[in-house]
Amino acid sequence: MRNKDFWIALGVGAAIGGIAALLYAPQTGTATRKKLKRGLEDLGETLEDAGDYLKEQAERLGKEAQKLIDASKDQFDDAIDAATDVVKSANKAARAVTKLV
Fold first, then answer.
1. Domain that holds residue 49
2. End-to-end distance of the chain based on CA atoms, in angstroms?
3. What are the two backbone dihedrals, phi and then psi, of residue 73, each rounded to the nearest 5 degrees?
4. Into how many domains does the chain fold?
5. Alpha carbons within 13 A on the beta-carbon side of 12
6. In 1-101, where does DSSP find H-type helix?
7. Per-residue pLDDT tens for 56-89?
8. Distance CA 47, CA 39 (A)
9. Diameter of the chain measured on Cα atoms
């Protein structure tokens, strides 16, 4: 089937489906609209709750990330201090060896 034929068939099928849905609907249009409105309101509340949850989780993850960054900085500072001590000791040892020679 060509592209144009596909879209025509899709449009005709959607129109027939819509008509059939209206003819066989178990309730009036007013009741259907009320249900749809209620469903959309519930969906809106659910999306708001999901947004609040995601915001809380993002804040929590940010705090945890900051804790990890701070801990890493502390460990890095400790490693630099240890390396500095080693270099100082090596310099002292090198000076002592040069004095002996």
1. 3-100
2. 94
3. -60, -45
4. 1
5. 6
6. 3-23, 29-100
7. 999 999 999 999 999 999 999 999 999 999 999 9
8. 12
9. 108
Half-sphere exposure at residue 24, Cβ-oriented, CA atoms within 13 angstroms: 6
Tokens of 49: 């709750």
Q: What is the rounded CA–CA span in Å between residue 76 and residue 83?
A: 10
Query: Hey, what are 40's tokens?
Result: 């959309």
- The token duo for 27 is 């309730």
Beta-carbon contacts of 1 under 8 Å, excluding residues fewer than 6 positions away, are 9
pLDDT in tens, 18-41: 888 877 878 887 887 888 789 889
Could you tell me the two tokens for 55? 């915001």
DSSP structure class, residue 24: T
Query: pTM (2 decimals)?
Result: 0.47
Is the distance from CB of 36 to CB of 29 less than 8 angstroms?
Answer: no
Task: Please work out, in degrees rounded to the nearest 5, the angle formed at the alpha carbon of residue 24 by the alpha carbons of 22 and 29.
Answer: 45
CA dist 61 and 55 (Å) reads 10
